[in-house]
Amino acid sequence: MGRSPSKGLSARALRAVFTACVAVAGAGGVAAAAPIYPASETDPFYVQPSNLESSAAGQPIATRPMPPLLAFPDTDVWQVKYRTTNSQGRPISSVSTVLVPHTRPVGGPLLSYQHIINALGPRCAPSRTLYTNDPDLQIKEAPALNLALQRGWTVALPDHLGPNSAYGAAKLGGFITLDGIRAVQRVPELNVAESPVALAGYSGGGMASAWAAALAPEYAPELNIVGVAEGGVPMNIGKMANGLGMQPHPAFGLAMAAALGLEREYPDRLPISEQLNDRGLAMRSDMANACTNGILAAGAGRSATEVAKTTDLMSSPQAWEVLDENSVELYPGVPTAPIFEWHSPTDVLIPVDSIETTIARYCAAGVRVQSELFPSPDHLSTAVLGLPTALDYLDARFRGDPAPSNC
């Protein structure tokens, strides 16, 4: 992929950022050009501690039992706040919600499930949406998670976008996921210190899972990850941008949210807000703390050409470096855990060829990969079609059965 700017708008880098997580969319003047972050926390449990440097990655900072949930019968709920690492290697804290079935054995399987979080507001993270009555924020994977709980698995749901809801910062999700597992295993009340671990997720959640699997051999080699199930993964966000283009799109809000989320994680290298015109800044304000539906409504039918005032960022090598650094396809690390991967061969939201290239690289390195196709009319339907098979795959890994491979 080249680095020269396209005609008209600073088109390639800004287009890439704006469209990075579609698979996974007034105010003006200098004062409005700085990154916009989520509203201040009111729950002390989520506030960033001042002494994180003194804690090791994956160290629990606080735990609390939570009220039971009707969606998960016969299950205790805990929340664990822990120290993790952002994309620049600096310490931050995040939260994982842990579902503990009453039937789980001590040391029984632990599944880290990375939920799809298309959002810029912390209220949209799993630890909060589990306790809301808003139907737009419900955990749609609850039926599949109940299948896991009924098998006696403990399920951890990390808030993998981090404290700033850095939507689009995929590598960050890998660090948060791995440190979440470390933290959960270090909480004595949860009885999973010696548990075998599996990772699972689809789309944006699959991206966090894929990054965690790739980072684990170097970042968290002590974890006993016996299997990974990753579906519909956007393996290359820059290539995905090139495929979508600059025309008005009903999901442009998600693309713009990805741009703003990446700016939160890389404010010096990806100053998107400086590139926005008044319309873009107003849209940014509308979605600064929004969840999926609010983001989609704010950007429906828009395009990058409508919200940009300058073309300077498009030719910036730094912008492309950020996209490359968050693309699993371009990360040289290779997972050591066996992988189940599934997607639709006709998925128009993600670059399917990047999935194939990544899997081929893993196979060549000796990874046991079972890759399955689930044809469907849209991206999210494939999640429903493939998830039961994915859970069966992980169940076999927990039993210690040899991992299949169709490399």
From TrEMBL:
<dbReference type="GO" id="GO:0004806">
    <property type="term" value="F:triacylglycerol lipase activity"/>
</dbReference>
<dbReference type="Pfam" id="PF03583">
    <property type="entry name" value="LIP"/>
</dbReference>
<dbReference type="InterPro" id="IPR029058">
    <property type="entry name" value="AB_hydrolase_fold"/>
</dbReference>
<feature type="signal peptide">
    <location>
        <begin position="1"/>
        <end position="33"/>
    </location>
</feature>
<dbReference type="GO" id="GO:0016042">
    <property type="term" value="P:lipid catabolic process"/>
</dbReference>
<dbReference type="InterPro" id="IPR005152">
    <property type="entry name" value="Lipase_secreted"/>
</dbReference>
<protein>
    <submittedName>
        <fullName>Lipase</fullName>
    </submittedName>
</protein>
<keyword id="KW-0732">Signal</keyword>
